[in-house]
Design brief:
Elements: H1 3-30, H2 42-75, H3 93-98, H4 106-109
Amino acid sequence: MKDEELKKIKRILTYEISKVNNNIIEYKKSTKPISPENSIGRVSRMDAINNKSVVEAALRNAEKKLKGLKIILSKIHNDNFGICIRCKTKIPIERILIIPETEKCVHCSGR
């Protein structure tokens, strides 16, 4: 992979990591326990609990994505970076830029 491609990918990864970190901070703020002494009404309380569950799922997904992005960033200078872990063909730069945490080509990701 060319140096300019690697620099572009590194910039995108760094940006994505920053964005996901910010999302995680916001999700953590939104997943604080809902105090039973809040007088928000039964239906509103049920909505708040449901919303909290949705945000907790988003938090788990963001943490998983962050982990993947950091792993890819740590591998960016390896000789096999941008090579599909399954079929060993080159992953198109466009795919890496769209899904930076990918380690498989389009063909192998569907398997």
